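fyi for ur records
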Amino acid sequence: MSHPQQNDSTTVVIENCRSDFPALQQEINGQPLVYLDSAASAQQPACVIDAVADYQHHNHANVHRGVHTLSHRATDAYEGARDKIQAFINAASRREIVLTSGTTESINLVAQSYCRPRLGPGNKILISHLEHHSNIVPWQLVCEQTGAELVVTPMDDAGQLDLAAFNQMLSNEVRIVSIGHVSNALGTINPIKDIVAQAHALDIPVLIDGAQGVPHLPIDVQDLGCDFYAFSGHKMFGPTGVGVLYGRESLLEEMPPYQGGGDMILEVSFEGTTYNDLPHKFEAGTPNISGVVGMGAAIDYLQSIGVSRIAQYEHDLLEYMTQQLARVDGIRLIGTATDKASVQSFLLDDIHPHDVGTILDHQGIAIRTGHHCAMPVMDYFGIPGTARASLALYNNVDDVDRLVAGLDKAKQIFA
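which gave:
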């Protein structure tokens, strides 16, 4: 495959965005930085950094309860970000947008608040072999607490779910299905609409781990039909420590609070407590206000470019990267699904992935090495971990060419 068309307007517009990211303007070990670790945490554009700084400089106060000007400003910025999130994923109501510390807390919230009261011996939770630890361990915990059973949909050698097996595993005993939208370790895009439709045919609710979906794909939760969708700010060019749980309003209304404290209450006495309305019922304590403001700015940034445009650009760049990596002598590509987003994992000869990552870092190239919080995926392939290159809108063909040249250098060193 030749380089993606450089004269294409989408390519030109998006490659011009690279200058929006201050961290990418530096040198590492005397080389211009090539950042290929966005699946772990994406860099932040200047507009996000500035939005957080402006809040801290001028508007910092606690939200919701203050009568003074700064509290009003902080509340407007915080709740304004919620409105942006609702529009961004096309939720039916702002009441369906629960602000959390990230995908991990969002999944734990559903496990403990929705599932735990509904589970007992004989019930099942259905996940997949592709999941990040954050979509495994919370379900193991709730199974230990309730006596329910965790069952796992198998995958194939390409890193794709066995959908026939998934269908067979659906039963009246399954109380929830929880599936990643995009595999962080392999890049596999799961057929979410089909999965939701099959589960809903048996009235089984579905949670989607969208941490890797939101940065790379247009998300419409009403079109997907899912009951819960969880994602994180730092994967989508926002700050760390902030995220979202979308939940269908009818389900959130039925759920008890996940945590108790300030802001999630309307009235408290020693005899009992009246909980706040949605979504505040699930937002106990002072939130990460600046993080939410930053996430709102990240959404503005993504929408100014166009998520569909980003998805097409990254799709073409991933094809180029995959084909260039496949030409490297001694490489083994891990994760070869037909439908993928933004990620390619690999092994190089018998060189340990950590050594590959270290040699690349000496050349100013940042990748991720290890099990990527997906140890069952690594166990499936019989390996301890991989090297993983992950793309974002600020990457280009030169970054890919630098990566391939860096791998050639690694081979020379270990030859």
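The radius of gyration is 22 Å. thats all i got for now
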